[in-house]
């Protein structure tokens, strides 16, 4: 069914590009389903009539060819088509002509949809191996009329060989039948592989097969069609199947050299020869990552920012020394030179597929060579850019340079050796320009924009290519721009430019030259955004050039230059404006510290206005300057208050105190997030005399903003939490002091309560777990405040406060993000090991010191070290709940290393308490408590279900399974039933796995678990129905005491054949209920009021 037809006219330019009308037909589905079913159903009647069968085959071919560009539309129908045809094939009554005709239809479908997808639909059970192998053995390999049958049978046999059983188990007893012994299954498969054109899919071992392959390569004649097919298959098997495990690579290489495949007339043979030679070359070289390759930089932004110049220098020197030492001890075999020579010859081949394969081989082999030898290879590639060479050699050289650049093997020193000068756009051949575009993609992605000598010529290359005379080159240029935009993101207004000059827009030459040219206005805005990256260069070089062009003769150039002058000038003004903020704030700080006699001078009001205005307009500053401006503001405000806002020593000017405190408290309610941040930091930097008698007011407002979790104010909450600790530190601690002036027994619980509440901030947005910023600040503030109180008035620290704090830290130290786990663990140990002052009332202090002695050197960032210590806290009743809560998100997470080590530590602990019934029951109660508290919290309940599934699979509650209807299982089942109403696929899938694990418990609870699984078998989501059936199948295989053995086969068959249609599933489900002895669920009628 055609949904739309569009016509797109493309007028050609020079170079022979002609006008064309392109008709595009978009299909909406497989509309010939009924006709296809009728054709297949008629095969038994028409197979004997050659004319009718050919007519039906041609009609089927026409139908299938319509879906060459949209083969996915066939997917919903492939299964029933395959089943219809296989019914004829499997029937013993089907004559050979019907079987061959059926396989011919299957081949047509396979050709359209692709064999990799289609072959997965073939039945591949154990029972299919022998029939398929027998049918394939009966085929005549010399019959050219039935090759489709052999091809499809080979694909089918390759799928059956993937069964998870050793094939020798299918041999049974190999006693002789009569006078002829039976041949093992594996030998039969190899025998078929050696005489089949498509044997590559069936090769599994390389012992005798290698000798046969080399003999075949030597004896075949590449002028015979059959020999070409056999040689093609042998080369593919050698290339794709375990090349690294070849016993004698030099022997194979010598065989290929004698064969002279590079002189063959068949492009595919030449390509396979190049591919096999490069794989052989890799076997001669040690697998290694070239330390001398170009390094764009660390993939960790934090590592890049924290690395000092000295560290960078030492890191740059050490690998070079190590590389030299490695290369001195590393001998390169002579065969590598032969391999490289063949690959360089392949770069000049007349076929693109051969050149491309050779280019990839050059990149792979060069990556394992020492620096000096690799540089010689690069030089040999550059030699191909000679006017004596053909266009094919130029194109192959471009592809090779692209591969070398993609792997970082083309060092920046080579970029200045004239690469771009040699690859000019003056070449008249389209294929060479296309190769240049491919090369440019990887060079622009891999190499930094700092390589000026290389970037500028490539920029000119891209700009010129957008207006190339050939449509394919223009489209290639558009694709390059799209890739660069996605990889580097260094193109302001890139989306707008790409929308205007997309793949289809540049296809029309008129549209390209007449309409897309307006993008120069966007280019001027791009210059505006690029100016902050290199302001000196823009002011001294770019702007004078623009001024020269602005007074030139060309109207279009003058238009773009004038717009660009305005944009660059505006950007320079903003840079100067931001610099002024830094400069003025720094000036205020230094003048205040210099104690200049400006007290009560009007200039102080001006300074205060600058600070306040900057806080109010922080959201207008560039993202890179905001943090620096905040630091400058805080430093300037603190210095100015200390010098000019004291009426007398230690006493604030009451008027300024009221004004500033009220103003910054009001700023905490601003709609601008950065204004809130600035106001919170300003309150935190006020000197002690400025918050005297205002502590309650300041703390309450900071408490207010830190507890507000709604809205996008995560950074404001973080800064408010920091401000609370700073204010408390400046106010001081006095057990019996005034709550409006110091931290005392009356307000300490409130302050701790706020900080502890922010430890549960798990806000997420597009940036991820941004609530972690708040939690990190809260942990730091709790440590600072606790050390302050413990040193001044430890008596006001109640046991409940210390317990809550230590438990929250234990939870954070057990969670999945390495950085915050390390931060929490470090603070936990510092509070535990602190002696001056000592923190009172830490629960289980002695046991904790046994687990974490003062001499402990623990890398909290490493999951392999951290979790084995954290899991020991599960044995301490006070810490068990919070530690297990933290471990839940780690064990049920997605990071492989975290999941592995956290689950291993958890299971080690559970293994140690298997004989302690009381401890195991206490652990189970804690587990149930966590689930009850987080039933509506997806952050916890989904990982919890995954963790619980692992526990059940590892028999962690085996002691409970010996008792019928154990209360733990009953309670757990009741809680898990709450998830049935969820619409979350991941939660429902995890719940199904837990139900299957609960089947190991004895008593009536087992019937209830089966009831829940059978209900999910009819869930409204097809994926849940399929998951439930699959999990129940595995469950019944694992726990053989669940069902009567007499009906086991029927149940397994029903589960494996369950249809996704809801009405059909209910019938199967009800039958399963009868077999399993479970009451059939009843449909509850909806009551309509």
From TrEMBL:
Record-annotated membrane-spanning stretches: 445-467
Gene Ontology cellular component list: lateral plasma membrane
The protein's name in its UniProt record: Tubulin-specific chaperone D
Example GO BP: tubulin complex assembly
UniProt KW Transmembrane keyword: yes
Gene field: TBCD
InterPro entries named in the record: ARM-like, ARM-type_fold, ARM_TBCD_2nd, TBCD, TBCD_C
Similarity comment: Belongs to the TBCD family.
SUPFAM superfamilies: ARM repeat (SSF48371)
């Amino acid at each position: 069914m055609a949904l739309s037809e569009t016509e797109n006219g493309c007028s050609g330019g020079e170079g022979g590009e002609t006008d064309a009308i392109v008709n595009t037909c978009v299909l909406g589905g497989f509309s010939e389903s009924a006709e296809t079913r009728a054709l297949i159903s008629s095969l038994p009647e028409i197979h004997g009539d050659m004319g009718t069968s050919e007519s039906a085959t041609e009609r089927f071919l026409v139908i299938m060819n319509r879906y060459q560009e949209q083969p996915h539309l066939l997917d919903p129908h492939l299964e029933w088509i395959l089943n219809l045809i296989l019914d004829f094939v499997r029937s013993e009554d089907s004559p050979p002509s019907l079987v061959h005709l059926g396989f011919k239809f299957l081949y047509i479908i396979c050709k359209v949809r692709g064999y990799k997808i289609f072959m997965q639909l073939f039945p591949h059970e154990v029972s299919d191996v022998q029939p398929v192998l027998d049918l394939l053995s009966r085929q005549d390999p010399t019959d050219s009329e039935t090759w489709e049958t052999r091809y499809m049978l080979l694909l089918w046999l390759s799928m059956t060989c993937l069964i998870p059983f050793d094939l020798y188990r299918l041999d049974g007893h190999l006693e002789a039948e009569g006078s002829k012994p039976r041949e093992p299954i594996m030998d039969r498969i190899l025998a078929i592989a050696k005489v089949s054109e498509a044997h590559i899919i069936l090769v599994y071992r390389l012992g005798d097969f290698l000798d046969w392959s080399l003999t075949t390569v030597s004896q075949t004649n590449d002028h015979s069609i059959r020999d070409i097919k056999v040689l093609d298959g042998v080369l593919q098997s050698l290339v794709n199947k375990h090349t690294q495990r070849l016993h004698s690579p030099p022997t194979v290489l010598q065989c290929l050299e004698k064969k002279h495949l590079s002189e063959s007339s068949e492009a595919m043979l030449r390509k396979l020869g190049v591919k096999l030679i490069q794989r052989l070359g890799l076997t001669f070289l040690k697998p290694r990552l070239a330390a001398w390759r170009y390094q764009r930089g660390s993939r960790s932004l934090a590592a890049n920012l924290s690395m000092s110049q000295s560290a960078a220098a030492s890191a740059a020197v050490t690998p070079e020394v190590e590389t030299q030492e490695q290369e001195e001890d590393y001998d390169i075999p002579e065969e590598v030179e032969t391999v490289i020579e063949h690959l360089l010859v392949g770069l000049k081949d007349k076929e693109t597929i051969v050149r491309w394969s050779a280019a990839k081989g050059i990149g792979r082999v060069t990556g394992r060579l020492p620096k000096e030898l690799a540089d010689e290879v690069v030089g040999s590639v550059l030699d191909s850019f000679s006017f004596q060479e053909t266009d094919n050699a130029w194109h192959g050289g471009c592809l090779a340079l692209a591969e070398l650049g993609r792997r970082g093997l083309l060092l920046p020193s080579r970029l200045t050796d004239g690469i771009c000068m040699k690859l000019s756009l003056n070449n008249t051949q389209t294929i060479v320009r296309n190769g240049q575009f491919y090369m440019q993609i990887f060079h622009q992605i891999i190499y930094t924009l700092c390589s000026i000598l290389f970037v500028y010529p490539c920029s000119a290359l891209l700009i010129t290519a957008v207006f190339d005379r050939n449509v394919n080159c223009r489209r290639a240029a558009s694709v390059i721009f799209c890739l660069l935009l996605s990889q580097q993101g260094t193109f302001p207004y890139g989306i707008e430019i790409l929308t205007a000059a997309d793949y289809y827009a540049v296809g029309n030459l008129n549209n390209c030259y007449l309409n897309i040219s307006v993008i120069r206005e966007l280019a001027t805005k791009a210059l505006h955004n690029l100016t902050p990256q290199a302001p000196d260069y823009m002011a001294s070089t770019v702007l004078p050039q623009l001024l020269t062009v602005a007074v030139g003769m060309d109207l279009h150039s003058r238009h773009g230059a004038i717009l660009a002058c305005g944009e660059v000038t505006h950007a320079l003004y903003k840079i100067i404006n931001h610099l002024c903020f830094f400069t003025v704030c720094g000036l205020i700080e230094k003048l205040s510290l210099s104690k200049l006699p400006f007290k009560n001078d009007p200039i102080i009001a001006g300074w205060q206005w600058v600070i306040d205005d900057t806080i109010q307009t922080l959201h207008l500053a560039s993202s890179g300057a905001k943090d620096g401006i905040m630091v400058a503001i805080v430093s300037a405000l603190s210095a100015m208050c200390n010098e000019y806002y004291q009426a007398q020593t230690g006493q604030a000017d009451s008027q300024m105190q009221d004004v500033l405190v009220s103003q910054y408290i009001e700023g905490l309610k601003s709609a601008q997030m950065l204004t809130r941040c600035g106001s919170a930091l300003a309150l935190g930097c006020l000197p002690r005399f400025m918050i005297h008698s205002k502590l309650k007011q300041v703390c309450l407002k900071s408490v207010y903003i830190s507890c507000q979790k709604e809205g996008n104010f995560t950074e404001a909450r973080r800064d408010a939490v920091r401000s609370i600790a700073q204010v408390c530190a400046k106010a001081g601690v006095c057990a019996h002091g005034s709550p409006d002036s110091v931290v005392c027994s009356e307000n300490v619980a409130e302050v701790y309560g706020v900080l502890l509440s922010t430890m549960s901030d798990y806000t997420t947005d597009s940036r991820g777990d941004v609530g972690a910023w708040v939690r990190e600040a809260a942990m730091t503030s709790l440590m600072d405040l606790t050390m302050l109180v413990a040193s001044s008035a430890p008596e006001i620290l109640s046991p409940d406060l210390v317990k809550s704090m230590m438990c929250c830290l234990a939870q954070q130290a057990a969670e999945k993000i390495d950085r915050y786990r390390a931060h929490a663990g470090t603070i936990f140990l510092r509070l535990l090991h602190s002696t001056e002052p000592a923190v009172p009332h830490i629960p289980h202090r002695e046991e904790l010191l046994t687990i974490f002695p003062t001499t402990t050197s623990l890398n909290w960032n490493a999951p392999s070290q951290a979790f084995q210590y954290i899991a020991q806290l599960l044995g301490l009743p006070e810490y068990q709940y919070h530690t297990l809560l933290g471990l839940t998100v780690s064990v049920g997470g997605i990071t492989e290393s975290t999941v592995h080590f956290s689950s291993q530590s958890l299971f080690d602990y559970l293994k140690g308490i298997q004989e302690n019934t009381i401890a195991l029951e206490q652990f189970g109660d804690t587990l149930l408590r966590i689930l009850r508290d987080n039933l509506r919290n997806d952050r916890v309940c989904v990982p919890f279900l995954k963790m619980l599934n692992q526990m059940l699979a590892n028999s962690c509650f085996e002691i409970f399974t010996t008792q019928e209807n154990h209360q733990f299982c009953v309670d757990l089942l009741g809680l898990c039933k709450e998830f049935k109403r969820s619409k979350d696929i991941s939660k429902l899938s995890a719940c199904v796995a837990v139900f299957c694990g609960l089947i190991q418990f004895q008593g009536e609870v087992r019937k209830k678990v089966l009831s829940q699984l059978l209900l999910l078998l009819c869930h409204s989501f097809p994926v849940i129905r399929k998951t439930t059936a699959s999990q129940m199948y595995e469950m019944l295989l694992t726990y053989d005491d669940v069902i009567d053995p007499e009906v086991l086969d029927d149940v397994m068959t029903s589960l494996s054949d369950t249809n996704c249609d809801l009405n059909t599933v209910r019938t199967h489900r009800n039958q399963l209920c009868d077999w399993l002895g479970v009451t059939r669920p009843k449909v509850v009628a909806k009551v309509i009021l």
